[in-house]
Amino acid sequence: MSSDPLFASNEINMRTSVLAAITVLWGATLLAQQPVRDGNALLLDDGSAKLRNELEALHARWFQAFDSGDGAAMDAMEVDNLVLVMPDGSVWKKSGRRAGKQPKRGVVSKRSLNGVTVRQFGDTAILTGILRTTTATKTENGGTTVVFVRRGNTWRIASVHWSPGKGNK
C-alpha cells in the first residue's frame, strides 16, 4: 500500500469492486448450473425436450405394435438382444424376430407416461417414469426404466424394466 492517503483509498475501492464482481460472477455461475423449474416441472432445454418427446413417442408406438400384434414393427424398434424385466421380477430375452409370431392382445390398454426423466449418455438414453396402464376393468401405475440405444440415426429399445406400483386398482 502507498503512503499517499488518496492512492490508498482508491486501492481499497478497487479491491472492493473486484471482490464484488467476483462474487456476482460466482453467483451467476452457480445459478447457471441449476436446473430451471416452473413450479414443480423441470424446464428442459430444446434439445432435451426434443429427445424426451422422441423417446416417449417411440415408447407409445412400441406398445401400440405390441397390442396390435405387429411383430415386424416391434422388430424395427428393438435391438435383436432385447431384455425385459417384468413387474414380477421374471426376465424375458428376445430369442428371434417377432414378425409373424407376435399375437394380438385381446385386451386393449391405454398407456401414459408421467414424471418422465430422460438422460442421454452418448448413443444411449435412459427414460425413467411412471407408466399408467388402463383397461376397461383396472388401472395400474408402476415404475419403468427404458434403455434406448442409437443405431445410426434411429433410437431402438434395448431393455425395459417394469416395477409394480402400490395401490393399483
Report on the structure:
The protein is an alpha+beta fold. It is built from 3 helices and 8 strands, in the order H-E-E-H-H-E-E-E-E-E-E. The chain has helices spanning 5-33, 46-68, 71-77; strands at residues 36-38, 41-43, 78-85, 91-93, 110-121, 124-134, 139-151, 154-164. Helix 2 packs antiparallel against helix 3. The chain is elongated, with a radius of gyration of 26 Å.
What's the structural blueprint in terms of helices and strands?
Elements: H1 5-33, E1 36-38, E2 41-43, H2 46-68, H3 71-77, E3 78-85, E4 91-93, E5 110-121, E6 124-134, E7 139-151, E8 154-164
Parallel strand pairs: 3-8
Antiparallel strand pairs: 1-2, 3-4, 5-6, 6-7, 7-8
Helix pairs in contact: 2-3
Strand content: 35-45%
Largest sheet: 6 strands, mixed
Work out the radius of gyration. Answer: 26 Å
Oligomer: single chain
Order of helices and strands: HEEHHEEEEEE
By DSSP (H or I, 4+ residues per run), the number of helices equals 3
Strand order of the largest sheet: 4-3-8-7-6-5
Describe this structure in a few short sentences:
The protein is of the alpha+beta class and 169 residues long.
What characteristics describe this protein?
169 residues; alpha+beta; 6-stranded mixed beta sheet; two-stranded antiparallel ribbon; 38% strand; elongated
